[in-house]
């Protein structure tokens, strides 16, 4: 085999990973992501927070990706090339979908608190700019991840990795800008809160902090992935599974778990994101008030009739 040739899946000695995956860890995270994403699915249908759908899809990406890693734990390479490409793509792209929901959540909090003046960018551009950057990052990483299995030489592999690296760089830049915007917004709101924000009973402050925290976790993960793809295939990051687990899997699971515990609907229900509950409570109030109004009207009518009887 030439120096520039990359070992292919047809080689019986070829290993899919630079390390021996732990099947127990793969099963654990497959089950963990399954539990949290099922909970998210229930939450999104109960609260109708459809803008959070990309986040939920990303959760399914993580779950299916770890199912794939479980099947690949024995490093069998014959019929499992498709599974390898699938799990690589899904685990690579899932955080990009998480990010899209972070951007939309932040925009909705600004509108809820009527605090557009504290945002460095107009709200009508916030989602468009950041989701567009997220989409470009998603496409570049998808192209690179999809072409990775077809690279037969070292030069081709480097060229393919360049697509992924470019997507990760765009993601990093987008995240850094977004985190700055969110932190500045939060600081301004603490110094000069709007009248609307003062009257709200929702925990929008906590959710701003949560959005920034989630973005920080995704940022750390993206830095790890960038270094991983930019380094040699025999580097320490590629030879130790513990780095992938701690700097990717654990961080993304925490991101999903946090939003299970503090779902965006808790902060955004006052803009009718939880419309069914809002409508039902409104109807209940109306039903309680109408009999009272009827009783008052009846009393007034009797008072008018009383002099006539006398």
Automatic annotation (TrEMBL):
Membrane-spanning residues: 23-42, 49-69, 81-104, 125-143, 163-187, 208-227, 242-262
InterPro entries reported in the protein's UniProt record: RTA1
Principal subcellular localization: membrane
Organism domain of life: Eukaryota
Listed Pfam families: RTA1
Keywords, in A-Z order: Membrane, Transmembrane, Transmembrane helix
Membrane-topology annotation of the record: Multi-pass membrane protein
Compartments reported by the entry: Membrane
GO annotation, cellular component aspect: membrane
Designated name of the protein: RTA1 like protein
Annotated organism of origin: Puccinia coronata f. sp. avenae
């Amino acid at each position: 085999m030439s120096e520039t040739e990359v070992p292919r899946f047809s080689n019986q000695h070829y290993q899919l990973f630079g390390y021996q995956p732990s099947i127990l860890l793969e099963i654990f995270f497959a089950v963990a992501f399954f539990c949290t994403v099922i909970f998210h699915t229930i939450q999104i249908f109960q609260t109708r927070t459809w803008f959070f759908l990309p986040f939920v899809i990303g959760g399914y990406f993580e779950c299916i990706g770890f199912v794939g890693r479980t099947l690949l734990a024995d490093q069998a390479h014959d019929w499992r090339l498709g599974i390898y490409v699938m799990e690589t793509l899904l685990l690579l792209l899932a955080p990009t979908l998480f990010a899209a929901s972070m951007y939309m959540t932040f925009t909705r909090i600004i509108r809820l608190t009527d605090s557009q003046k504290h945002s460095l960018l107009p709200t009508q551009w916030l989602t468009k700019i950041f989701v567009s950057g997220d989409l470009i990052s998603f496409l570049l990483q998808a192209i690179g991840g999809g072409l990775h299995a077809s690279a037969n030489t070292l030069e081709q592999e480097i060229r393919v990795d360049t697509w992924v690296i470019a997507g990760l760089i765009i993601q990093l830049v987008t995240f850094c800008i977004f985190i700055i915007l969110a932190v500045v917004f939060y600081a301004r709101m603490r110094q000069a809160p709007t009248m609307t924000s003062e009257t709200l009973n929702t925990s929008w402050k906590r959710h701003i902090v949560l959005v920034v925290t989630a973005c920080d976790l995704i940022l750390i993960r993206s830095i790890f992935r960038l270094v991983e793809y930019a380094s040699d295939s025999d580097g320490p990051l590629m030879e130790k599974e513990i780095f992938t687990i701690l700097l990717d899997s654990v961080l993304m699971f925490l991101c999903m778990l946090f939003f299970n515990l503090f779902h965006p609907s808790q902060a955004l229900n006052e803009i009718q994101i939880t419309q069914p509950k809002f409508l039902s409570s409104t109807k209940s109030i109306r039903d309680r008030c109408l009999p009272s109004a009827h009783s008052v009207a009846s009393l007034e009518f009797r008072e008018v009739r009383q002099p006539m009887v006398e």
